[in-house]
Amino acid sequence: MWTCPNCGRQFVTANGWHSCMPRRSVEEVLDGRPPGVVAAYRELEAMVRALGPIQVEPLKSRIAFKARTTFAGATFTRSTMRAGFVLAHVVNDPRLRVDSYGGRHVHTIEVTDPAPLDHPDVRGWLANAYWLGTEGAGKQIR
Predict the structure, then answer these.
(1) In whole angstroms, how large is the CA radius of gyration of the chain?
(2) What is the pLDDT of residue 22?
(3) Is residue 57 part of a domain?
């Protein structure tokens, strides 16, 4: 792992491109968000922490979850949270937006409260994203 000497973020690739920015806390990112969005974030963080060892990386307007690589995260609008996770395949589900790049597919579900996250599908997708984020260090979950 390579650590940027300016911002302290860790990356798999030495000198990997990224935007250096001052570290923030989770609380700073969540400050002023609607209570349902804060509750949704707390649920998402609990779900990913239950998967195994992770790093929580708060940035300017998002919070990333890393195993070896970033596998999930949350971005915020004024009134919503977009919970995202990275998979090697596309999941066709009307709840999800999918953006593809370089053989990886970022799936996003937009929420205003934690209820949509408390679903077996979402838990399974996050588990597979975590597996991919560890770069297959364990057995793939289906």
Answers:
(1) 15
(2) 67
(3) yes
Residue 1 located in a structural domain: no
Residues of the chain with pLDDT > 90: what percent? 63
The residue range of the domain holding 47 is: 23-133
What distance separates the 2 farthest-apart alpha carbons in the chain?
42
Number of folded domains in the chain? 1
pLDDT above 90 for 62:
no
Q: Tell me phi and psi for residue 109, to 5 degrees.
A: -120, 130
Question: Is 17 within a domain?
Answer: no
CATH number at residue 91: 3.30.1460
Residue 87 tokens read as: 């998979």
What whole-number distance in Å separates Cα of residue 74 and Cα of residue 62? 5
Averaged over 45-55, what is the pLDDT?
95
Tokens of 103: 């053989």
In a domain, 92, yes or no: yes
Average pLDDT over residues 11-33: 75
Residue 142: predicted pLDDT:
46
The residues pairing with 74 across neighbouring beta strands, listed in sequence order, are 63, 83
Q: Which residues pair with 72 in a beta bridge?
A: 65, 85
